[in-house]
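Changelog note: in this version the structure field was regenerated for every chain. One regenerated record is shown below for reference.
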Amino acid sequence: MEISGKIIAVLPLQSGQGKNGLWRSQDFVVETGDQYPKRACINLFNDRIDKFPVAVGDSVTVSFDIEAREYNGRWYNTVRAWNVKKQEVAAPEAQAGAPVPPPAFDEAPADSSGSDLPF
């Protein structure tokens, strides 16, 4: 699955020792740009933290999987990112100089003799 949006929060790095060795985990929150914005807390785990550095304000597209696990009779979901692509922000066009104003309308002075009039 994928979600696109802007990163609005990066939570502190967590780490610990498990039966398979040392682990690291970092969560970040993405807000969509829809009319009714949605927020999703997404997790980066172990080497993906270094592979996909994230920062508040980044516009990203995140590919993720949803995993569920049971603990003491309750179920918990994890939204785990496996790819984070930063979206390119279009830079404004470079201006060579000040904007050029439109040409002025030159009006010839009115001739009071009326010799140019067809009637």
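Spot check on this record: Residues 7 and 30 are 4 Å apart (CA to CA). The mean pLDDT is 85.
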